[in-house]
Each structure stands twice: as structure tokens, then as C-alpha cells.
Amino acid sequence: MTPEVTAEIRTSHILDLAGEGKRLDGRGPDEYRHVEVVPGFVTTADGSALVRIGDTAVLAGVKLEPGKPFPDTPNAGVLTTNAELIPLSSPVFEPGPPQPGAIEVSRVVDRAIRAAEAIDLTRLCVTPGEKTWVCYVDLHVLDHSGNLIDAAMLAGVSALAHATVPAKRFGIAESDYPLDLQHVPVECTFVRLGDTLVIDPTFDEELAAQGRLTIATDETGRVVAMQKGLVGAFSPDDVREVVRRALVHGDRLRIAARGGKT
Amino acid sequence: MGSVGAKDIPVLLTPEGLRIDGRRLDELRPLRIQAGPLHQADGSAFVEWGANKVMAAVYGPREVHPRHLQQNHKAVIQCKYNMAAFSVDERKRPGLDRRSQEISKVIAEAFESVVFAEEFPRTSIDVYIEVLQANAGTRCAGLVAASVALADAGIPMVDLVPAVAVGKISGQIALDLKKEEDNFGEADLPMALVPQSGRLVLLQMEGHMTPDELSRALDLGVVGCKAIYEKMKQALRDRYSVDPIAAGAA
User: Does residue A261 register a pLDDT over 60?
Assistant: First the structure.
């Protein structure tokens, strides 16, 4: 049987189970997989974190370099987020230029970091209009078993939380100093399986999904970003429900972002 | 390659014959190999070797992409060696560069020399090597990881392929160079060995060595490869051996 055929059989099974409030891996609809964050996984980075959500693994590395500010924001540092869905992580990824999926992951994560004002970009300014820190957040998907957005976000924010500005190395200040986060945004992703909205979808659940909805929250209880993806639709009540659930799970993920296990 | 803060040439070898990390000339850096850490790949391995961290995954035999590379009488082996942007001191721009392409090619050719490719006509065996943290010797670490990943994927091969770089520091032949030794040393010679046949399937060299030094470097490299070979086999045993007592209880 081809992978396409087995996927179709699995999809109908996943949808049948969801009708009874069950999932293929035995979780309930509101049960997140085991989350583990390993900060400082890569010592060549200025900040890094390896995140595992179940069998999904994403490694984030932060690098800071001196550069030029954008002309329209002379007093602010530059933040660049890049996601690599490398073919090592899944049989569905092929080598080549970034695919739409990778661009979506990086943009959704980038948006949440900006909207939450996780980093005070004005603190990254060295000389207004001339010199600023450019902060690169590189997201490397290692094992794609579903819910890449949440894993990439958690890895990115955790890497930033543990990052150091290499001011001494570049001769800009006497010593390095921590980057510091003002806010800790995390994402919580749900997919629709029939009438059930399940949290933290696996790869197979994403294939079966009739719509995906990602909610980014911060520690003050604000929603800072949202993203609807895949083919499907959500009612306003669906959205209200997942926002409520995202806030509850977000607090747990924020503890993990600091390097704890949940 | 020098980092931003690079200063004068460090002392690579003390009068007592110790290197900057306290190793002797014929000593390897600590090496840890884990077989099968990834869930999506058909085979995978993670290698921590000194300050190197390298992940490898193998997919296949599967359909060939792009199609025109397909061979009617055997599998093609495609290798992609890639460095993460944050794997080095100065951020590397993501994507393929000429160095990565060359390394990918020589590693693919090393594996073509040991894999029984004719058993899988019209397919591709795809080998992906991701350098997550680099500290000299990443092509050898990648090759070791990929070789274990190929075995983990159940690809039939003549043998595992251990690899190591030998070099010259302060005029002395040294095994398994680390970054400072690679940057400031006089020569670097990465090699990969097929232990069964005693033949090398990857061999490169940069720097300067006398024929005598080169000869000794090769001998030292073979000894190093054989030690690495044992660790590769052990990693596979750790993944696949069954504890008879636990198995009986299950």
C-alpha cells in the first residue's frame, strides 16, 4: 500500500475516534503531549534551546551581530526569524528554497515575538541610525511529528530567554549581558477533527484536520497573535473556546520555556 | 575561519606533549553516538564528538527525486551536508554553499563504495547530515553519524565507515584536531576507513606534510578509525540488543 492510501485509512480512523472524544495516541482532546526544553543545547549560539513536544523536536539558535538599523526605525534593533524545515526531519520535506510551510512557521513565530514585545528592541540600539544589534532567530526542525508552530515558538522564545548579547566579543561594551525578555509569548495550536477541537495535533492529525488554529498568548493573559491554517473553518464560539484553552495551556508552556519539564 | 576575538596563535603543544585540551597526540576527543534518535527517518544517529553536535538521518530506498538521476541497475546515494546558521561563531548564512556541496559529494561517494546499491535499482537512498554545533572535524562526525544512520535504516553495506581527521600541530602529527588546532595547525587530513578491507573511502588533505609525516598520519588515522568503529558498533548494539530478563517479563 502506498503512503497515500494508508494515510487515507488513518484519517478516517482518526475522525471516527475524535467523534468519541478519543485520539490515536490515547490522549484526550485537551491533553498536550509531554514537553521538554533543553536550554543552551548549542554553545556556538548566543542562545539556544532544544524543544521536544512528544516525538516532535525543534532546535532554535539565536545569534546577535552588529548591523544597520532600518531607516524607518533608527532607534530599534533588528529581529529576523528564519525556519528551516530540513529534509532530515521528515519524509515530506525536500531540499531547496523555503517552502510555504517553512515561511508560515517563521512568520507566525516572528509575529508573536514582535506583538508580545518579547524583546525591547530599543535596547538593541547602539548608535541611533547607524549601529544596532541584529538578532537572528534560526529555527531548525529536527523531527516533524506534528505541531511545528508551537514547538518552534517555544524553542525560539526559550533560546531568546537564555540568550546573551555578545557585546564584549564585538568590542561594543566591556562585558556581555543577558538579552532579557519583557514578555514570554507562547503558541497553542488546535485542529478541528469533525466537531472536536483537539490541542497539540500530531502529524497524522494535521493530515486529517479540517482546519488549524493557533493562538499566541503572553503571561499577562493577552492574546498577541493568531493564525488560521489548512482548509477548514471555525465559528466565533470555536475561537472563544480555543482562546480559553490556549491561556490555560500557555501558562504551562511558559514554565517549560524557562527550562522546566511539564 | 578566525572568530571575532581571535588573537595571537595559541600554544598548541606544551613541552610535555599535551594539547590545549590536555590530550596526548594520539588521543581522540570524547565521542558519544546515539543510534535512532529521530522518529520520522528510516534511520538516524546523533553524534557528540568533542564540541561537535551532528544529527544524521537516512530515508529510503525510496523514489528518486529529481527523476532524471534514477539509475536502472542500482540505487543512487544522495547526501546533503548542511550547517545550521548558529553552529559556528559567526552566523553562517543558511543554505548550500560550495564547501557544503563538496563535502556532500565526497561523503556520498564514500558510502557508494560500501552500500550494496545494486540491490535497490531505480531508488534513492537519501542521507541528510545536519551540523548543529561545529568544532572542527564535522565532515568526519557527519560521516560517522550517517554511517550509523544507514545501519539503523537497515541498508545492506560491506561495513560501517568510521572517520577521523589527522593533522599536524607544532610540527607533530596529531589525531582528531579541535577548532584551534585546525585553525592554527599546519595540516588537516580527514579520512574514512572500511575496517573490513582496510581501505580508505574518503581522503582529503590541506596543509603541508612531508611524505614521512603523511605516512605516519595515515597510520595514526587508521588506529583512530578502529577505535571509533568500536563505538559505532556499540551504539547499534545499545539500540537493538534485547535484555533477556526484561524481554521474558514482557
Answer: no
Number of independent structural domains in chain B: 1
CATH 3.30.230.70 corresponds to the domain A28-257:
yes
HEC states along A154-205? HHHHHHHHCCEECCCCCCCCCCCEECCCCCCCEEEEEEEECCEEEECCCHHH
> Would an 8 Å CB–CB cutoff place A164 in contact with chain B?
no
Percentage of residues of chain A with pLDDT beyond 90: 82
* Cβ-based contacts of B134 with chain A (< 8 Å): 44
Interchain contact A95–B (C-beta under 8 A): yes
For the segment B159-169, the average pLDDT, to the nearest whole number, is 97
Q: How is residue A79 written as a grid cell?
A: 529581529
pLDDT of residue B1: 39
Q: Compute the average pLDDT of residues A26-30.
A: 97
In chain B, which residues have their Cβ closer than 8 Å to the Cβ of A145? Answer: 39-40
Report, as an integer, the average pLDDT of B61-65: 93
To the nearest whole number, what is the mean pLDDT of chain B? 92
CB contact under 8 A, B126 and A43: no
Reported ipTM: 0.74
Domain of B154 in residue numbering reads as: 31-238
Rg of chain A taking only CA atoms, in angstroms: 19
Helix axes B98-112, B138-152, angle to 10 degrees: 40
CB atoms A43 and B51 under 8 Å: yes
Domain spans, chain A: 28-257
Tell me which residue in A44, A89, A143 faces B134 most closely, judged by beta carbons. A44
User: Which of A44, A94, A169 is opposite residue B86, by nearest beta carbon?
Assistant: A44
- Confidence bin at B18 (pLDDT 50/70/90): very high
Report the residue from B37, B38, B91 with minimal CB separation from A63.
Answer: B91
Amino acid A209: pLDDT: 93
Q: Is A93 on the interface with B (CB under 8 A)?
A: no
Q: pTM for the whole thing?
A: 0.84
Going by C-alpha positions, the residue among B233, B30, B28, B27 that lies closest to residue B147 is B233
Quick check: A163 and A179 in contact, CB under 8 A? yes
Q: What's the rounded mean pLDDT across residues A233-245?
A: 92
B38/A94 touch (CB, cutoff 8 Å), yes or no: no
Any domain includes B249: no
Instruction: Please tell me if residue B132 touches chain A, with a CB cutoff of 8 Å.
Output: yes
DSSP-derived secondary structure letter, B19: B
Q: B110 in a domain, yes or no? A: yes
